[in-house]
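Example 251, ligand NAP.
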Amino acid sequence: MKSKTSRWAGKVALVTGASSGIGAATAVALGALGMRVVLAGRHRARLTATARRVHATGADALVLTGDLARADACRRLFQTTKRRWGAIDVLVNCAGIRGGNSLLATPWHELDTALRLNVAAPLLAMREAVAHMRGKRDAAILTLGSMVGHRVLPGVPALYAATKHALRILSDGLRTELAARRSPIKVALISPGLTDTPWHTNRGGIRRGGKPFPYAPLRPEDVARVAVQILETPRHVQIRDVLLNSSAQPH
Ligand SMILES: NC(=O)c1ccc[n+]([C@@H]2O[C@H](COP(=O)([O-])OP(=O)(O)OC[C@H]3O[C@@H](n4cnc5c(N)ncnc54)[C@H](OP(=O)(O)O)[C@@H]3O)[C@@H](O)[C@H]2O)c1
């Protein structure tokens, strides 16, 4: 049920990748804080399913579709949000793809799409969000990195790991630029280990063919809870990086 006591209640969050997995769970958790949540992704039916879950918390949800690998669609997402609900207070950069297994054999267009969706789109979204957040006392930009952006794990595709490493550096750089402007915007990178989402079932991940995970993964709600904890810190506290994995993860 929706919280009326959170200082974020009534404010606007934009969550990319809200149609499934971690993004959907985060959107629901922000709804439970009393936030109005913009749900972005390509698939309207899946976003509408998330909207139903947000509504069940008592919060408002707005579904906006678009391919965020395209800069024009990303800009349009912010323009439409501003026109419909005003400036956002929280951005959650969650949309991402794996982008193929091989630097040499994966077709270039797949690698290019991953670079645009996993790196260019979150950076553009950060720029748009900062413009929205000008003058606000409470605002936050949360980006989904990955454990593999911090350390090399066996079998992880290099391009994907590189995009997540880039997000780590971009988040640090953004925080530094904002600090020089004495901006109160919180900037955090959340880097989960293996998490049980459609990523692993639908898109050629480890659980293909219905095989179980090699160990018990995190649940999307575990990651969403971290996003809420970052928002709920006092204004003077800045959580920069959170790495989390299931206690069963062996490396
Ligand atoms: N699952 C894990 O083990 C794990 C671990 C560490 C980090 N992460 C990160 O967590 C984030 C969410 O992943 P997830 O596990 O929740 O996977 P997921 O369920 O596959 O979610 C991916 C989201 O990205 C959206 N998306 C994909 N391509 C898009 C595009 N071109 N334009 C707009 N949206 C697009 C998808 O929505 P549409 O299909 O509707 O477009 C979906 O909502 C990703 O950044 C991932 O790198 C995941």
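Summary: The chain has one domain: 12-244.
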